[in-house]
Fold these 4 entries.
Entry 1:
Amino acid sequence: MIPAAAQAVPCAVCGGTRNEPLYRTRRRTGTAVGDVDVVVVQCADCGFAFNSPRLGIEEYRRYYSDTNLASGQVFRDNRPGSYYSRLFAERAAFLVPFLARRSSGLVLDVGCGGGGFLSALDLPSGWRKRGIEPSAKASASARENGLDVVQGFAEDLLPAEAGSVDVLSLISVVEHLWAPADELAAMVSLLRPDGLLFIEVPNTLFPELSLTGFFSFEHVSHFTPHSLWRFLTRLGFAHVVFDPAPTRGIYLRCVAGRDPASFEGAEIMPPADDRDALRGAVARYAEDEARLLEGLERRVGAAFARWRAEGRKVAIYGAGLHTVHLDALYDIRANATLVLDGDPAKQGTTFLGLPVHGPQDIDRLGIDAVLISSQRFTDEIAATVHRHSSRPVEVERCYD
């Protein structure tokens, strides 16, 4: 059920209040917020998709600041050649050419997490890089890596630093904003008149299937190329250039600005209206998600049953939200003896009642079967498991 505190909200793109339901599910948060109904609607006027009703903004703020399961808290393996090191480099390669005409400036990365993107930005000596991140853990990790990062929200910098930023970076941020139009309008006041906005959000035309769900409690806005372009132009950004080939098409990445000088030679073309394509994508997603859950239950259930019969010592790799959702399908404590995770901050703690160890402990603990509780970079995780084991360890994935 929708909690009594949930609030219906208008469309952030056009302000409309008429909408039609697209999708509904129930998600675990793994926190004191509890299980939450997620209702996705589409604006009847402009076609933008968003969650409504939804919990109040203070609930979201507490969630992002306190839990170790929120997006900004997730441990990223940034070693050379890893999934995230390649992704950070891809983002930097798209942004940097837009800065060529500037010899100096300030890049502010809002919601910077552990600072992976800031580290990947190779800028001339006249440039400075800063970050702000609501998660205490993630911001501390960034500072430990030598980055200028403070804990907080972008509005904490106002009004003192209004008009001081040359590039405002918002990677995997805008989809989380409770009131995106108002909050982004406040954030962009940090920009100089000729400042640039660098944005990356999930592409709802290609929603990724996962046990944790593309349509989640955290993501309250669901952008397509057209709705993101319309959203930014409504905020006064007349020039919007999209990256033509972000990773696997699952992201929308763009640079936006008000000063045409920064966009000389760039192809600027408004995306076509895609509201019908969005409805089709969400309908297919709902069907595919049902099949995914059925297949995952069979796959994981068969692995657990076989390992029990063989007397294996089983570990789950991943002390995160994916495992919280997996626990709803299978009692993790009845099927595994411990959890493995590459995040040093989680090692030595407990998760879902099980001890958390690093992969370096696999041999010492006698682990001979590992279930990877993740959708992404499973090849990297499997390689990590085998690298730390001197004897055969069977590795099973949740997904094909």
Entry 2:
Amino acid sequence: MSFCHLHTHTEYSLLDGSNKIKEYVKRVKELGMNSAAITDHGNMYGVVEFYKTAKANDINPVIGCEVYVAPNSRFDRETSHGDDRYYHLILLAENNTGYANLMKIVSIGFTEGYYYRPRVDFETLERYHEGLICLSACLAGEIPRYIVRGFYDEAKEIARKYQDCFGKDNFFLELQDHGIDDQKLVNQQLLRMSKELEIVCTNDVHYTYESDAEAHDVLLCIQTGKKVSDEDRMRYDGGQFFVKSEEQMRALFPYATEAIENTQKIADRCNVTLEFGNYKIPKYEVPEGYDSAEAFLTELCEKGFREKYIGCGEYSADELKKIHADMDYELGIIKTMGFIEYILIVWDYINWCRTHDCWVGPGRGSAAGSRVCYCTGITDIDPVKYNLLFERFLNPERVSMPDIDVDFEYAERYRAIEYVQQKYGHDSVTQIVTFGTMAARGVIKSVGKALDFPYAETDRLAKMVPQELNITIDKALQMNPEFKGIYDSDARVHEMIDMAKRLEGLPNHTSVHVVAEAPEDDPVEQEDHHAVAQLRYAVGKAQRDQPLVDAPVHPELHKVEGVVSAQEVAQIDDARQQLGQSRGHRRAPHAQIQHKDGDIVQYAVGQTAGDDRQNCQTGIAVGLDQHLHVIGDDEAQRERGQAPEIIDGILIRYALCAQQHGERLQKYENEDGDGQADARQQHDVLREQAIGLLALVLSQIDGDDGAGTDGEDDADGEQHIGERYRQIHRCHGVFAYALGDHQPVHDGVQAENHEGCHRSGYEMQKL
């Protein structure tokens, strides 16, 4: 074979790729290819699974990613670039150095450059280019975009820039043909450039088989919240985004034989080796007076043994002797398996939390069976008293990392994370991602919605799926005769269920391990818990670094400058944008600010400058006490799906937005002409920001309004939330919030007629 797919999106291009890794590798094997690549959008979520699956099938795994490149700096948050907010670029790891650099590039995109997408910039590429092969990407790449606009010379200069960055033999112009007119134009100009630059042919794979085109189209509708019948929606026309054979690719590019053969040459150059089972634990710096980590851990255990066993008076001398021997045995196993440093690290951050007013619970899980953990204070339960087994925690017959679960008070958790980062290095500390998938019930409802099935019908079909662990649609058809009967007799339902089966099991969102998560058979429209966690972290850090100013409630807009730094504002804003993009309607963990002064009241007023029909003010008054009891009794409100901490972090950002809005209004209120026009434009931008924040607040307050009974999606609830947003946008209501009201914000909505809002102000209440 002389062709290899180098531009491939798998199921981990979330809600954009339906190309399941196992099916993809199987198909590549069937087509006689010896190599295949993975280049998911902006992430490397599927790399390990793909690597293992490919190796198991004697396929050379080419590890890559389609990154998003910011036109200027990755820190630039300006929205004026429009479609040019970011460009696509394919990066392939040639060796382990390239793999390490690719991981750094992708990580920087998430941690530093996230704006709608995890973006990097040219400075990042220059710094970490070693060991990477670069392709110019699809029509969304920088070079194709300039060509489409008629700027050939500029496109050529950009190509040379990338060639200078990655090296002459490491940059390739990427030819694609999916029947799109713009691609024919781009290919002509890329061939013109190929006299000086290398070229390669790719197929922008998003699904495995040609027959999957329709199911993938439905997936795009699920991603964007559209229906198949909607004319103005995202779609991949032509049905050509599948895993093609070499013969099919040669038929597409009879004029570019060299470009076809270059794919195999590139694949042969890419040899990344991933190492598994070799745990790289950070080194623990022992205090002075100890010559090794083992000696320090032994001393901690001896001290704890004296306090917790000898000192308790519950055990005889013989029993104490046996307990001590068992503790020594555990220490030996821990040493043999190489986990002494791990135990000390866990002890270290637990001990730090306990001595720095950061609430932390005891270690739990299988670690409770360890006498070492008990004596060091990692756990609080005596394993001897309850006959707990150490072998469930560590077993020399099964070499795996120990797992000690530790709980932190979430408003202060960021402090523990910061401590660990500072002590062991930011590059040595990370949080673990988990993936929510489209399970049987959820995928039926999502597909039914995209195909414009009546909600009642999809709800009925989804409930025919038994509530069993690991249930699938195929199993449900076998177990439920009624479900099977409808499937066999109704052609519409048969087609919809078959479509759902093709999409079943695809990952649809990410979460941070461990967080409270909805059941896996919930609909796909779930909140991105990673974004929630980021929002919570950013707000909590900002609140601690620069607490709110103690000021009495006043009818005028408070100056909130200095509440958070510019960097923290950006972090909060980015997290909000991520959360907003998740399209979730279910209640998830919310941001919370904890403040020591329970009497502090913070409020913000947003003044909307609209046209003659829309002349009103939208205001919010918020109070912050130590736990932000904004809607009455905590437990009672939770039962109703209304979390008491819903608006804290979001409102800090809203306050800043409202302040800017008011300042610009005052500055230009007496001007006319250009000054007034400029003021109106700035007002509109700020108003949209405030509207978005308010809408997010309402979606959080509505909680389970977007979900029906038994954890199912409720179309009426979704419509309800959408109407709330429209009411804010049209200024058809006044939203006020007071601590003493025991009612959520949406109970204060007073809808007016469609001709405008007749309220000119709001009532501010002293909280």
Entry 3:
Amino acid sequence: MYGTRVRFGEGASMRYGRGRRLAAGTAVLAMAGTLLAAVGLGSGTTALAKTALANQVRLPDDTGSARGDWSVATRSGGRVLVWRAAGRLPVTDARPELRVPADGDTRLAAVPRLTADGRGLVADLVDLAGVDISRLQVWLGADRLDRPGRVAPAYRSAPVTGGRGVQSVPVETLAADPAAPGPHSVATPYDYRSEPLPWREFKAPMEVRGHVVQPREVDDAPLVLFLHGRHQPCYGPGWSGDWPCDGQSRPVPSQLGYEYVQRRLATQGYASVSIAANAINAQDYQSPDGGAKARSALVRHHLRLLAQWQRAPRHAATFGRMNLDRTVLVGHSRGGAGVARAVLETTADAPYDVLGQVLIAPTNFSSVATPYVPSVTLLPYCDGDVIDLQGETYTDLARDLGTADTAFRSSVLMRGANHNFFNTEWTPGISQAPSFDDWFDQR
């Protein structure tokens, strides 16, 4: 199908075919300007110019689709391909991708940019050179967005039921269970907050909030810092999609979702901090790296704050019991990409020392490797979000960087595990905000 299709409301549309003359009436220009403003492309493109551009590009056939529309537009940087969804795209750790069929599967054609309203995807046509644009598909993780079906996963409060059990297989049991409770009692968890941290790519600064769990009797406890991944930042009525949460909505407390691990670590003598990153999740569509640098900056800012508070007399009884020279970073999904970059960007004069990292179902859009740092990557076999298990690249890329690097690296494929349930605040039935099963609910 040739041409550009423009929708102006329920059941109303206009299609301009190849070579057809258009009357540049006031109403048409006004409607075109409204559409372009809605997708964040500015007001410099008229309907006539847009149609002329589309006449040179064969667009995918979206006839009868309730899920979105394709169009071509222009802006200062050149021509762009636009796909507009009927509603906001879900906030997940996977990135939206434009793919084309290939050998019975699909291959990546381009990584589009998300518009500010969360409904549009934009890709430069120059990046699609050599691609049959008429065959493009829009994917987000395991979900193809441009075909009939729901755009968003089924958020709910009830737990998942009806799934098939995992077949029992023989296993080798370790003599000592590393997940067994230790001898220490757990102090009452507490939260801290500090001034928001500005970030050059974001309109609103990043919140600085942490959830602390410590053992009672240990005065030199190694520190484990957790960073959650990309999830819905707010929930409740009135949320517009912006940050901070507006209307009657509240932040999703994703930082609380690892307290079950934090408590177990405390019994084993570790202090832990789980930090909030909702401001990043609401704004990282503006970041070419998916927010990895922003997450790295947030992690390092928290560690510097903790080191600073250790030296303050009024905080010595709490933060003074953490040993920041023995720090391990744990990142879930895009949080994994964030802590990996934090390892790379930590300088030699930092007031802390990172001795290792644990990456849970991590993304690695920038193909980062972290040499000389012990690393464990957990790969969920039933990951319905980061479906390509790209976190394996942290092990593969760092493995052969240099013969002098003897750091331990391991990847663990976890049979039966999905993406979300490592975080209890992303788990239906126990989360405060509605959540979903990325594997079961997507199918």
Entry 4:
Amino acid sequence: MRTRLTILAGTLAPALLSSQPAPRYVVAGNVRGADDARLAGAIVEMRAAGSASAARQATTDADGAFRFGDVAPGQVELRVRRVGFRPETLQVEVPQVDGGAVIVPLERAAQAMAGVVVRAQSRATASITPFAAFERRRAAGLGRFVTRADIDKRRPQRTSDLFRSVPGVVLVQGEAGTLVPQFRNSMSAGTASRGASSQGACTPFYWMDGTPLGALALDLDAIPPGAIEGIELYSGIATVPAALRGGVSNAVCGVIAVWTRRGGPRTGPGSVSSLQLAKLVESGDVFTADQVDDAAVMLPVVPFTPEYPDALRKTAGKVVAEFVVDANGDIEGETIGFVSSTAPAFSESVRAALFGLHFTAAQRKGHAVRQVVQWPVKFEPDDKGAAVVKTP
């Protein structure tokens, strides 16, 4: 189905070639989304109208721009497509009389994930980071601590390995086969309490980057050891700091607080191009959100908390990140890219925050499948000190 196009005259500057008697021209333009966002990674194919010859191909850059040089006069056909959007086809006269760029609007076909809003904190608030409390408690000698230096020294294969040498902690196999750290129950065997098991182990209350997750069988091995900055362990209510109790009953079986690493990109630019991703979708190796029965959903194992770039604290921006979630619910790092972005610093902030995230795998016909996810992230210069907030 075609939508009605609003096309400004193309930039068709004559570029006379000495080897050609007839003038040659440039066809240039821009591909945009419904919100006027400039779409990167859109595939633009051009051929002479009505011709069966092979099409010339270009991919839009970070600004959504494309360009074809050495174009003969006459009518050409442009076909524009991008993963997650409906393709468009239009006819362009070469040269255009009015000048200007060919603007190609694309309509979204696959539903993007619910967006996230990141608000800038005031300088005073931003300087007091939640992880600073970790250092204060460690300096005071409260509880037991695993630091980044400990992790680098031990080089564990899995995060659960970090708990094997902690006194009073046992690793219990959960229902899904995961290893779950628990504190040995110091209460009498006959005492009934939240989290106490028949084996005498006590399920702790979990925190992740200052966010309470509750007493659940958390799969810590879903977080790579390289993504962890520190871990706090408190074996009983008497040792749990007030800031980590979340209510007295929640701390009866102790607390485990995990802090993930912050600052600096943790994965480089994706090595899978938008063209390669499009081929994966076309071949049925990867699916879009509208092609699956149940789309991938982020799990609260590692919070998604992009940093607001210091140089852009007074600037609003928007990024739409794109990546593939595999059949195990993990992000395929080489597929991370961006559909659109108002500034590279916003993109890098989002890229860094994607590290270590875990999802429920998409389901299609009863099977877990790979799904391409497109995730809008909005940056707002707000001095209210608000944290990351999900929006519908």
